[in-house]
Amino acid sequence: MTAVAATQRPADIRVDLQLIADMIPSGARVLDVGCEDGALLAHLVRQKGVDGRGVELSQAGVNICVSNGLSVIQGDADTDLGGYPSDVFDFVILSQTLQATRDPKGVLADLVRIGRRAIVSFPNFGHWRVRWHLAFAGRMPVTRHLTYQWYDTPNIHFCTIRDFLALCAEIGVEIERGLALDDTGRVQPYPATGRRANLCAAQAMFVLRRR
């Protein structure tokens, strides 16, 4: 996939969210886990006619989604995904949320169980700027995608791309597609599964399914 041109992207959706939307066919059954204010979900319902549902931890986010007519409930990815039947959705989305879960391994297993495919994106803690900051400043990095200080961050399980690939292999998750992204969310020309991505990509996005 190539990066979506700015003229093709609605002003109310981030570049990385548009990339996710482009992967989902019209009319699909979709669950967006950690949907925040529902920007992606609303786009999918409006532009793709999906049967879209959302789960969001914050009540404020749920209120915004519901006020915009979206089917969103308050829930926790760590505790509530286990109650969903297997294969009930065509796609389950977890965008920029994996690192904030208490049990990433269990959450990832649930994503590919309840969805025929899962789309997962996350900031890459192996990015060269993060390494540079740790090596030379000696402090936890604050970047465009790691915006919190170490003492108030909701991100409790940082990982590199290589860590994520190893976890997928460990629990029997197949990677159908991977995208290496820069810090603006635009697709980079190198493979997301390669060493260069682990060093140079600020974030990554993968389409997954059970083996």
Description:
The chain has about 210 residues and is of the alpha/beta class. The chain has one domain (about 5-210): Rossmann fold. The chain has helices spanning about 15-25, 40-50, 60-65, 75-80, 105-115, 130-135, 160-170, 195-200; strands spanning about 30-35, 50-55, 70-75, 90-95, 115-125, 175-180, 205-210. α3 links the parallel β2 and β3 (about 70-75). α1 (about 15-25) crosses α2. About 40% of the residues are buried.
Total DSSP E strands: 7
Q: Can you name the CATH architecture?
A: 3-Layer(aba) Sandwich
Q: How many strands, which pairing sense, and closed or not: the largest β-sheet?
A: 7 strands, mixed
What percentage of the residues does DSSP assign to strands (E)? Answer: 15-25%
Mean residue pLDDT: 90
CATH superfamily: Vaccinia Virus protein VP39
Shape: globular
Q: What would you report as the Rg, rounded to the nearest angstrom?
A: 16 Å
Could you name the CATH class?
Alpha Beta
